[in-house]
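Notes from hallway chat w/ T.B., transcribed later so I don't forget. T.B. wanted the structure written out for a chain they're using in a teaching module, and asked if we could keep both sequence and structure tokens in one place. Agreed to drop them here.
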Amino acid sequence: MGLFYSLFHNGGITSISQILEIGVIIGFLFGSYFIAKNKSYGWFFFMLMNISMASLMLLQGKVILMIQQLVSLYFVVYGFKKSRDIKKKLIGGENE
């Protein structure tokens, strides 16, 4: 609802930053939802969120905040790899 109001009020998508902001919102909402459902592709949405936010920070000239987002991206990639490893272990039936 808020997205449609914003599009109507601003006359559509008029800048790159609006697209990146939508990427942040989609990344957070879908990433949280799919990870809560134990779907490992939710991590890709979190990657979209971090990359979009890092790009926004770069556009605004906030290099330190961009670097923080890229560091966060590392942890998201790590979480994805760990979730994939756990899923392989469960499917493979390995016992440790």
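Follow-up for T.B.: The first helix runs from residue 2 to 10. Might be a good example for the class.
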